[in-house]
Each structure stands twice: as structure tokens, then as C-alpha cells.
Amino acid sequence: MTRDELRRRLGGTINETSLGAIGAPRRGKVRDIYDRGSELFFVTTDRVSAFDRVITTIPFKGFVLTSTAAFWFERTRAIVANHLLDVPHPNVMRVRKLRPLDVEMVVRAYITGVTSTSLWTHYSAGRRVIAGHTLPEGLRKNERLREPLITPSTKAAVGLHDETVSPADLIRAGVVSEQTYEELARLSLALFAFGTARCAGRGVILVDTKYEFGLDEQGKITLMDEIHTPDSSRFWDAASYEAALRRGEDPAGFDKEYVRRWLKGAGFGGDGKVPDVPDEVRAEAGMRYIEAYEKITGMRFEPPYADAMASLAEWAAGKT
Question: What is the pTM of this model?
Fold first, then answer.
């Protein structure tokens, strides 16, 4: 699919859903969640968030996130159970209802980023102890760390900012117990190692990611939300990484960092009015999401519908 074709799809993106046939939604930054009792419908819109704000929509983004998450959920069941039941529509996951744990387990293998919670933001401001980890002097932006680090983050509501905290802070505040945190850390590092190896085989670097977990009815820790998508993770092109690092440039990526960098260039860092995003930026971002899907999964992208909103409404009507 070309950029011109994506530009023609900009008017048909899914922003907000109101699928009366299946109830009223609870809106997150990207997903509209419909409660069906013991199950939920996660409807992934085409909204893109950055700096904890909803920015704009990108064509096929919801499909890419749903398909990529389903790809990884199926392949990591041997590591940890997850909430996915099936994918009844290209933008919808039917999932088990869990009791969410109020922490994001962020795993980082490189020092990079432009958000308020990124390692590079903290490090370049002079901090050397971050989320309980002591970092050495002399690190360069985008450099690989000696080992992956977990920097937990509190989960903020829409419009508010996430906050990086230490494990000790989480435990002291009663967000999770020490035993639960240790298990979350073990599972997160195992998932990250699996993702790193799988991506390396595709010529992709898994730079960092976040995992969210909940408890099922038996109190078992279960992976939820999404996994290794271009929204929850940062991916770089392995072939060009070393050259970019030598030049002091940001590596070529396959994620929404492109949107974050554009926003930073426009003077937006999360506060104030969200700037209008030009169509060419939205189309370019769409190309990068599609490229990420193909690179990560090894599957060819095929448009799943002619009109995203019409397709979703037709699916919802069939649920009555």
C-alpha cells in the first residue's frame, strides 16, 4: 500500500465508537472497551496517543495493533497465560475479564526516548539512579545497556502522565506485594527475552516495551492489554543501528516514535493544545505501522476492509 493510498483512507479511520448493539464503551487512550459480563470486547481504534494525550488517527493502526498483539499472545502462552479468547473482527479482541494490577512493567534494553518517563530524558537531565537502578557515567543516547532493566510505571488516566517509580515504592505503597512484583519481573524479562530473540531473527531490535498484567478469578497472574506492538514497544532496524549510533542519529524505527519526534519538533511535549497533525505525517505514520506489522510478524499486509468504521458497525450489528 502506498502513501497516496493511505492518504485516501484518512477520512475513514476509527476515532470513537458507539456500538449500541454491544453496550456503552469505557474509553482508553486507544481502545474502547465494552463490558460483556465475564468477557470484554477490546475495540482498538485508529487513535494514536503520545505524551499521554490522544493526538490524531492513523489508517489501519487499529488493525495492526490487534493483529500484532494476537500474534504474540498466541506465541507466548507457554511463558504466561493471557486474556485473549479470539479475534472476531480485525479491530476487536474478545478477552477474559481480569482484575488489573495498577502498574506497567516497562523493560528497556537501550537508553533512549523523548517522553517524561524515558531513560534518556532522566539520564540527560543528570539523574543516575532511575527506578532503583544506578546507571554508569558516559552513556550515549540510543546505546545498549549492559542488561535489560525494568523501570515500572504507574498507570495514569487519559490526559494524565505516567510516572516512573522504583519497585520499592510500589511495594511500600501497597500497589503490589513483594512476591507479586518478583513474579511480574520474572515474567516480564522472560517475555522480553522471547521477543528479543524472535525480532532478531527478523532483523529487528526490540528496544523497549511495556507489559500489563491482571489477576484471573483464581488469583493467577495473567498477561493483558497488548504485547510487542508498535504502540507498546519501540523497534529499530538492526541493519542500520550501528551506523546511526556512530553518527549520533536516532536509529530507523518501526513504531510511533516518529509521531513523538514530530510533536517534539512542533513544540509539543504533552501539555497545552495538541497541534494539528498534517495529512502527510499521518500517512507516513501509517506506513510505519504497516512496515512494523510486516517486519515483526513476517506476514504480508492486506487491507482487511474498504471502510473501517462501516466494517466495525456491521460486525457490532451482528452481535444483537
Answer: 0.92
